Sequence to fold (243 residues):
Amino acid sequence: MRLGTARLPRPLRPLRLLRFPRLPRLPRTRAGRRRLVRVVMAGCVLALLPSAWLRLASEDRLRTTADVPRTEVAVVFGAGLRDGEPSPYLARRLDAAAGLYRAGRIDVVLVTGDNSREEYDEPDAMRAYLTRKGVPGARVVSDYAGFDTWDSCVRAKKIFGVDEAVLISQAFHIRRAVALCEAAGVRSYGVGVQDKHDVTWYYGGAREILAAGKAALDASFEPDPRFLGPREQGVAEALRTRP
Fold:
């Protein structure tokens, strides 16, 4: 007697392991290995060239708050907000600017940052912080379209008419700021404020290695900022009405 024709289900086959692409094989000949070493070394040199350019372009323009020449305008670059207030890094930049103003080393502070969203306003937060530190509101000018360092430098020159400025940022960023503002036509002195070497500091330093490449391209091709807009008289008026 037949038990029926239904087939028992086949056992599940084991899942195949994912296959990763094979790594390229190293050259077997001595000449091939030498060529590979040359290629790797050339790539490393090319990768480091932008950083070397930043160092050379800014070397004689760096100062401290104690020895920076008296200059009418200081530019403070945005560095993020926390709950609507300047981040600790940005606060230290603003503290340096307020100290220079109280010491009579600068007359006007141009705060440049991101206001691309209604709920995020770096320049107004920077202005409020400076006024709490004793800088009159009439001496603070806001650039609401400083979306990156290059945009801030170009707008300082083309929109606000700044020909010479003290730039204030962290030490790991100040060389790039000076090199780009010089390329944009702003004679610059860079003041790099010091910070403890925490995770944020190391991240900023590592980020600068990558940002150096973009900086070299910006200085070479001089692209227009994301937003340029009409000429503004804020800096000129603040200088004209200073005590």
Summary: The longest helix spans residues 30-58. The chain has a mean pLDDT of 85. Strands lie at 62-63, 73-77, 81-82, 85-86, 108-112, 140-143, 164-170, 187-193. The radius of gyration is 27 Å.
